[in-house]
Write a structure and sequence with these properties.
By secondary structure, the chain is an alpha/beta fold. The protein contains 19 helices and 15 strands. The chain has an 11-stranded mixed beta sheet with strand order 1-3-2-8-10-9-14-15-13-11-12, with helices on both faces. Strand 6 and strand 7 form a beta hairpin. Helix 6 packs antiparallel against helix 7, helix 14 crosses helix 16 and helix 14 packs across helix 17.
Length: 552
């Protein structure tokens, strides 16, 4: 027994020595690593660093032994607002005018595609119950979603329970407002107790989070009915998740794009009255554009992200996707503002005025992005710009900042995503993700480990300069028009945190939706929604039944 104890002690000492030896960093290690960051130090200087580098490594290892919950944010957080910016004063929820003269259509498909305020009228005036409306949408989900793949989880039992409660409250005279009894879907980055929150990714497909996302709670308080969890591309990338590829209901051979793929697809297909999406780089705007719906990406900090998966703390935004600008305005009004649970959230004002009052708006457009190299307006935008002019809008040219290292976007996003998904990478569970190609989210997370902290901070310093330059460029305008994917517009405005609205402007020669993006200054969501609603009141490119679900 004594010899055995000696053997064990010797083995432990050897193992400890081997571990320490493995932690030793030598000259060659540093020389090879230098290539990853584009620097070169002399051998003598490297020799002076070795002790520091080994101490750093021990610090990393010690830090990893302490668990971090998903809702633990960094102590340093992003404030995108330029020097001297004045935050809006908090305003109460708008008094939405619900029409009284809405007739109940006989066709359930027609009902499914009605605007929110018309659905609200039918429910408020007891021409349609919330349960009936919920059953219409549940029936459409069962009929169409096997093709679209827009839902990850259908919360049928919860939806019918909430709808029944809404009907009972309304019958008792307790009407909460325009969202009372209205069914919707939320992107499956949001936590809802009792249901899986999969983040669209195989490693998390059985994950249950015991919290309620603030946006879900606010909509519940407004009386809305949750139909289910909509597809997010895996870990908020693209339209591919562990169950397949979410389709564009206007062309079932085409993906909905991402990562709010399910939100865009389900809203366009009339499977929900509206939906909630998130955006880091185009994840509300892109599927809205592709699927022919209207999507609002609010100002960074206007809507709480509490209870949502984080991709990038300094870039993520939560917003509504609807079949019209007015639908987005109604939903945004109920989800905006402080919750005291997520520290980037600000007080918000929302002075939504009559959409006919647009002649006072000063509207710019990124002229060069609409034109060919020869200076002619691109054919796909000519009619749209003319339609705005026909509304009485005088479009004035605006220039985008062009002297900027745009690669900083990837540095910031990947570093922050790498931190949030640190455990996923270190445990190797990242290998379970469906996509593993060079451009996949899985590979992006792996390489994030090699982004130096200094470069991340430098990228954010360049970002500060971009915020000042872009804010100055559009400061004299209420709204600025841009091609949705023109130049670096989408990257710039996601880095700066400005609000954006994507809306349809017609169809291309293949019958697919085309669109445009409206931008505004911080917390000026009301102005882009006002102009968009005025446009949609004159030109009816929105709210149509997609060919992929029509007549089936």
């Amino acid at each position: 027994m004594k010899n055995y104890a000696i053997w064990i002690a010797a083995w432990l000492m050897l193992a400890c020595a081997s571990t320490k030896q493995a932690d030793k960093i030598n000259l060659n290690d540093v020389q090879v690593a230098q290539k990853l960051i584009g620097l070169e130090f002399s051998e003598a200087k490297i020799d002076t660093m070795l002790g520091y580098l080994e101490e750093n490594l021990q610090g990393y290892k010690q830090m990893r032994t302490f668990e971090l919950s998903y809702d633990t944010e960094p102590a340093l957080y992003f404030e995108p607002f330029p020097i001297g910016f004045e935050f809006p004063k908090e305003t109460p929820i708008h008094q939405w005018e619900i029409p009284d003269n809405v007739d109940l259509p006989e066709n359930p498909e027609t009902i499914a595609f009605l605007p929110i305020l018309e659905l609200a009228s039918l429910i408020k005036n007891k021409k349609l119950t919330s349960v009936q409306l919920t059953e219409i949408y549940l029936s459409r989900i069962k009929k169409h979603d096997s093709q679209l793949l827009s839902f990850i989880t259908v919360t049928e039992e919860l939806a019918l329970e909430q709808a029944k409660k809404a009907d009972e409250e309304i019958a008792a005279g307790n009407y909460r407002g325009p969202l009372h009894g209205i069914p919707y879907g939320v992107k499956d980055l949001a936590a809802v107790p009792g249901y899986p929150t999969t983040w669209g990714s195989a490693p998390y497909k059985d994950q249950y989070l015991d919290q309620t996302a603030t946006v879900v709670k606010k909509l519940e308080d407004a009386g809305a009915v949750l139909l289910g969890k909509l597809v997010s591309g895996a870990l908020a990338r693209g339209d591919v998740w562990f169950g397949g590829k979410t389709k564009n209901p206007w062309d079932l051979s085409q993906g909905a794009t991402g990562s709010s793929a399910g939100s865009g697809s389900a809203t366009a297909a009339g499977l929900v009255a509206f939906s909630i999406g998130t955006e880091t780089l185009g994840s509300i705007v892109s599927p809205s554009h592709r699927c022919g719906v209207t999507g609002l990406r609010p100002t960074f900090g206007a809507v709480s992200r509490y209870g949502f998966m984080t991709l990038a703390w300094s870039m993520d935004k939560v917003g509504p996707i609807g079949r019209s600008a007015q639908d987005c305005a109604v939903v945004y009004d109920f989800i905006r503002g402080q919750d005291h649970l997520e520290k980037t959230v600000k007080t918000t004002g929302f002075s939504y005025t009559n959409p006919s009052d647009i002649n006072t708006l000063k509207v710019g457009y990124f002229q060069k992005l609409f034109e060919t190299d020869s200076g002619k307006v691109m054919p796909q935008f000519a009619s749209t710009l003319e339609e705005f002019r026909q509304l009485g809008i005088e479009l004035q040219p605006v220039n985008l900042p062009d002297s900027f290292p745009f690669e900083v976007f990837d540095i910031i996003l990947r570093a922050e995503a790498g931190a949030f998904f640190d455990e996923l990478v270190r445990t190797g569970r990242v290998d379970q993700m469906v996509e593993q190609h060079r451009g996949s989210r899985a590979n992006s997370l792996r390489q994030s480990r090699f982004i130096p902290a200094v470069e991340y901070i430098q990228a954010n310093r360049h970002r500060t300069r971009l915020i000042e330059e872009f804010s100055k460029a559009i400061a004299g305008f209420d709204v600025v028009l841009s091609p949705t994917f023109g130049g670096n517009q989408m990257m710039i405005t996601n880095l700066t945190g400005h609000p954006a609205l994507a809306m349809p402007t017609g169809f291309d020669e293949r019958g697919r939706p085309k669109g445009i993006t409206l931008l505004a200054n911080y917390f000026d969501e009301a102005k882009i929604l006002q102009l968009a609603e005025a446009y949609q009141a004159s030109y009816f490119h929105h709210g149509k039944v997609p060919t992929g679900v029509k007549g089936q």
